[in-house]
Structure formats: C-alpha cells, structure tokens
Amino acid sequence: MTKPLLTVAGLQAWYGESHVLHGVDLHVNEGEMICILGRNGMGKTTTLRTIMGILRKRTGQIIFDGRDMMGVPLHRTAQAGLGFVPEERGIFATLTVQENLLLPPVVAPGGMSIDEIYTLFPNLAERRSSPGTKLSGGEQQMLAMARILRTGAKCLLLDEPTEGLAPVIIQRIGEVLVTLKERGMTVILVEQNFRFASRVADRFYVMDHGKMVSEFPVQELPARMDMLNQVLGV
Amino acid sequence: MTTLFGVPVQALLGQLLVGLINGSFYALLSLGLAVIFGLLRVINFAHGAQYMLGAFVALLLATKAGIGYWFALLLAPLIVGGFGALVERTMLSRLYKLDHLYGLLFTFGLALTIEGTFRYFFGASGQPYAAPPALQGAVNLGFMFLPIYRGWVVIASLAVCIGVWLLIERTKLGSYLRAATENPVLVQSFGINVPLLLTLTYGLGAALAALAGVLAAPVYQVSPLMGSNLIIIVFAVVVVGGMGSILGAIVTGYMLGVAEGMTKVFYPEASNIVIFVIMAIVLILRPAGLFGKDA
Known about the structure:
The complex is a heterodimer of chains A (234) and B (295). Chain A is of the alpha/beta class. Chain A contains nine helices and ten strands. Chain A has one domain (4-232): Rossmann fold (3-Layer(aba) Sandwich), CATH 3.40.50. Chain A has helices at 44-52, 74-80, 97-102, 114-120, 122-126, 137-149, 167-182, 194-200, 225-232, and strands at 4-15, 18-29, 33-37, 58-64, 67-68, 82-85, 155-159, 186-190, 203-208, 211-217. In chain A, strand 1 and strand 2 form a beta hairpin. In chain A, helix 7 runs parallel beside helix 8 (194-200). The relative contact order of chain A is 0.19. Chain B has one domain (3-285): ABC transporter involved in vitamin B12 uptake, BtuC (Orthogonal Bundle). By secondary structure, chain B is mainly alpha-helical.
C-alpha cells in the first residue's frame, strides 16, 4: 500500500498562452483513493487532463507505474493503465449504451466483465440498446465509469462524478466507489462536494491557483473544516 | 401507347432509370464526402478528381497492362485509396490544427493540380472504356429495354452503399468512427489511434470515389474533367442530405437523381437546375439538411 503508483512533480501546463498549472506535486499509492478539492477554475480538471496527456503543452514529471509518461502519445496513455472519466461524461450520442461500454479497448487483464458491470449497474443492462444520450445524468455517469472499469485500467481519473446529480444517485456513486476500492482500484477524484469525498477518499489535496496548497489524510478532515470552508468558499 | 399524367410510360420509366443511374453516382460520391466530412471536418474538394482518377486508373490498366474491368473494379479503389491515405498522412493532416478553410483550400488546389496534370497528358476530350462482355447488351423488361450495364451500376452502387452503411453503423470499427466524429480527443484517450483512423477514413472516401469512377467509365467517357462536372451537384446532394450524415447522403443521392430524371420528363428546361432549387428550398426550411441534426 505504500508504493506510489503515480508521482507528479513540478507539473506545469498551458492553454495556448495562458499558464494554468504552476508546479503541481502529488502522488497516489497503489490502491489509494485521493481527492483534489478546490474552487472552480483553480486547475483541478486541468490537472487530470494534463496527467492523462490530453493537454500536451506541459513540463515537469509524471511517473506512472515506474514509467515516464511525458513523451507518451495520448493514444498510448490508456495502454499504460490510466483511465479518464471526464466531467462532461463524454457519452456518445450515436452509439448505443452497449457500444459505449465496449468502445475503450481492454488494456490489461483484471477489468470487470460485461456481466459484472451489468450486475453493478443494473440500469445500464436494461437500456443496453438505447442511444447513449437517452440515459439520465446519473446513468450517464455510471456508464462513463463502467466504460473505464471494463478496460482493466489500474488508475482511474474521475472528474466531479457527483456534479448535477440527485442525492440518491450521489449515494449510489459513493457505493460504487467503495466497491472499486475493495477491488484495489487506485483513484484520483476531483470533487467540490467534500462531504461526499470524505466517505470514500483516503487523502486530500487542496488546489489553489494552479498548485497544491495543502495535503492531509481523511482523519484530519474534521479539524480542517474551517480552513476548507474558507478556501472553497462554501 | 399507355400514358401516365399525359406522358408515355416508356419515357417515364426510361428517365426513372437514368435518374437512378445518376443517383447511384451521386449516392456513392456523396457517401464518401459525408464520411470524410463527418470525421475529418474537411470539405474534400478533391473528391471529383479522385473519381476521375478511378476512371483513369481503370482505363490505363486496360490500355497499358491489359487488366480488365473486374480487376480494375478492385484495383482502382485500392490504388486511389492508397494515394488518398498518403496525401492525408503527409499533407492534409498538417492542416487539422488550423481553420477548416485550409483543408478546403488544400483539397481544392489538389483537385486543380491532378486535373491539370491529366489534361496535360491526356487532353480534355473523353476516351471510351468498354463495359465487360458479360454486362453488354440489354434485356427486354416487357415495358422497356434495360441496358444490362446500367442495371448493374444501380445494383452495385446500392450494394456498396449498404455495405459502407453497415460498416459504419454495425461494426466495432464503425463505432470507433462514430465516436471519433463526436469527440476525437476522448476516443484517443481511450487508447484508440485516432490519427490512423483519420488516414483510413480519408483513404476510404477516396476509394469510394474511385469505385464510382470505374463504374462510370463505361457509361460516360473517361476525361480529366469528368469529376469537376459532377462534383458541384454532389456537394448540393450532401448539403440537402445534411453535412456528415451517412444515411442522408445515400438516400438523398438516389432521391435527387430520380428527381432530376423526372424533371426531364415533365419540364426538361428545368432539369439542370432542379437539384439546386431543391437545395435552396431545403436550406430555407431545414438548414441542417433533411437528415442532419440541428446543432
């Protein structure tokens, strides 16, 4: 449990001329679930996109599973074992639920089988032949996650999975994350909702203006509530 | 003589057939354009030139190498498709980061270059290309004589259109294509080699154009400008069908071919412009095209 699966050091990134990450440092151990907190526009989503290699204008260090990821092209990042679930979910409208699910190629053994996925997400099983975007927001989020779980990715980059969803759906997503944790999945979660995150995450980072400003384990969360309320502006 | 709406049935059926044949070429060509536009967002102005290349490859295979129609039907799309893939990989792919207008300008320049080169070597006049012996002659359908080759063109193009549609809508590769059309970056982050997919797609579009060219060679004559005469109509077909819509391109291709044929029966003076009139009306009433999604 103590070996870092992913280490990010001094990561800087740019959108065109605009400098958006100013030296991000973080690490995730194997089987750990960390959560990045922070207000909108502080670089949380950008951090995930840069680790994944979607944002290419970047400097610094990304070591995943002992491998330097900086020179790896985007279409090879997934094969290394990183899986990305974007904030907008990215469900394809012209594909059925099943086609969406089968779209990402399997990159390693150990992913969930279709049967396991349909057991974990019974809603998706019922709607496997309907178009992807006919699903509700919650079902789309489940599908976006399920899609990556099938591939055998070792580390899941999960961007604001609870955004815009009803409390009962959020609870369901929480249960899924607990299941993933039991299976030994490593997760980087970006969340605004830290009450939700506190139920699943082992460790927290707080992000402000393109870098990490604090890091603490979940046990210290109660003691830091005042600071968090201030930084997150809730 | 039997008449329908005051027109002899023979004339009506004859023009229906001519319309279906023209429609076959419209459908094959607009299908390739739609596939390319859908994924690459490039309006492929070289499509007419690739159609012409297909016909010329067939002609040259026959005159220089003695290779007949049936092999040409297979070889010409492969050669022109390979050429298309090479052009995409070495040149067109460098323009994706720029405004889409550059892709259009590039393919337009490419078309002029190819057509100019062929005009230099072969002159502007058409050269005949014979239909294969098995498809020569005509059959008596009772109400009219059907030239066998023309019947073959309709059936072959319909089969190819359905095949390509199935490839895109029903296969794994097709699901990559549809997904990459919607969100190429996400598809690439899943580990799918999207740049390769773009190259293959452009190659497929060029191969479809070349196939249409081989099919057309015995019907029309083989000339360097055969594509540029046709391509403007095909663009109108794509616009009416809805930019990037595969089914729209196919259905609209046949529909407008038939509409053009029927106009020749009822009001011949308008037959050259009827497709553009339909395009104007569709653009006013449904700007996204008959099968396009409003977005």
